[in-house]
Amino acid sequence: MKIGQSLTVAAAAIATTVSAKHGDAHLRALEHRHLHHKARAASAAEKGPASQLGEAVLAKRTGQCQFPEDAGLVAVPGASNGGWAMSPDECCEPGGYCPYACPPGQVSMQWDPTATSYSYPQSMHGGLFCDNSGKIKKPFPDRPYCVDGTGNVGCRNKASKNVAICQTVLPGNEAMLIPTDVETSATLAIPGPKYWAGTAA
């Protein structure tokens, strides 16, 4: 076989392999997501700590989708979530719902009024609504932020250190982000039948 023919066959084999690897749409989506996060991280690194601090101060000053610190809620720690019951790198953005954590023994009573069944994407719409101007609003103005759970269960810690019991964010991303820090004992909330769509959290 001539050198030219060998190179042609090799190139065809490589092209076939690459096509097979990237033919699946799901893999392409994952790769796109990975590159997006990588680009965000590189951009943040280029800006430097001073620039990032300035942006954080500006965001706090404008109060865009700001967590209501005077509402008796529990702020969930995270680099970007601003106290909301969201993943640490997730932000509460205008036009979306922002879930929050209630004190131990209580459950949230705010969510998208149109979300009446456990179906996507309405199942993600828990908490307060941040309108397009960045202002936080109660979906149900006549309801409190939180209410006591029905049939509360107590937790006693016999370990030598504190134990964290986490509640699922639902409606929301269903991650276990709502914390209850148990030093010696604490009350865990069990949602009643009037909780969102008759589900538990």
Name the poorly predicted regions: 1-62
Radius of gyration: 23 Å
Structural class: alpha+beta
Helices and strands, in N-to-C order? HHEEEEEEEEE
Strand content of the residues, in percent? 15-25%
Helix content: 25-40%
Q: Report the biggest beta sheet as strand number plus sense, adding barrel if it closes.
A: 3 strands, antiparallel
User: Outline, from the CA principal axes?
Assistant: globular
Q: Using DSSP, what is the number of strands? A: 9
State mean pLDDT (0 to 100 scale): 74
Protein described:
This protein is an alpha+beta fold and 201 residues long. 28% of the residues lie in helices and 17% in strands. The chain is built from two helices and nine strands. The strands form four sheets. A three-stranded antiparallel beta sheet has the order 1-3-4, with no helix packed on it. A hairpin with a 7-residue loop joins strand 7 and strand 8. The longest helix has 38 residues, at 25-62.
Describe the SSE topology:
Layout: H1 3-21, H2 25-62, E1 96-98, E2 106-108, E3 128-130, E4 136-137, E5 146-148, E6 153-156, E7 163-168, E8 176-182, E9 185-188
Antiparallel strand pairs: 1-3, 2-5, 3-4, 6-9, 7-8
Quick tags:
single chain, 201 residues, alpha+beta, two-stranded antiparallel sheet, globular
Short précis:
This protein is of the alpha+beta class.
